[in-house]
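Support reply, case 0932

Customer input (verbatim):
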Amino acid sequence: MIPPQSLSFVGKGDFVKIGREFRRHFIELAQLRPEHRVLDVGCGIGRMAIPLTEFITPAGGYWGFDIVKKGIDWCQERITPKFPNFQFRHSDVYNKHYNPGGSEHACDYRFPFEDDFFDFVFLTSVFTYMVPADLENYLKEITRVLKPGGRCLITFLLINEDSAGLIRAGKSDLDFVHEMDGYFTTKPADPEAAIAYDEAAALSFFDKCGLTVELPVRYGSWCGRNTYLSYQDILIAGKPGAA
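Our regenerated output:
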């Protein structure tokens, strides 16, 4: 169950391999369990959902939303009929590249779920395209919809002494040399094409929004590191309270 290449918009890399890699991270790093309720923010065309169909049982459930309607349509047609506890919905949020006709703005968007509903929330390669006001609102929404004791896993591109040095040395895939208002970009004329955050600033967003980051940060290879876990950097955080 793999979408045709003509419909894929989730970037380079092996679709199946990346999905299975992150399923492993969800289980090993964030203690995902088969009976959990899971939210996939920016679910694309099912890259993470498909491998999770082999793990999440009917006692749990998966909900995903995305701003690209063709991805949601494919998931609703191909995944949900076989796995009714996997649900997908389109969110009409504006994005210059992926949904230029969107009627809502990410900085004001309210996730279409009730408070304290999910055990686990994840975002893969979403905050790498979001400016601070949008990111902060999404973190607040993640906090709202997570149960007390719930966790989230979010990928970032983080600037610290190590990654900045590798960028200066020309080792990085992404040349984050342009500093904007609270973030870095590779393209000042089109900043949301790729966005990185100062690591300390990123951690402060979590604290401000009521989430506790679980250290260490799992750093990625994007900037040319020799030792890494994945391509992007990974942060795990929890909502205080009893699970």
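We compared this against your earlier run and they match. Two observations from our side: The longest strand covers residues 146-156. The two ends are 34 Å apart (CA to CA). Please reopen the case if you see a mismatch on your end.
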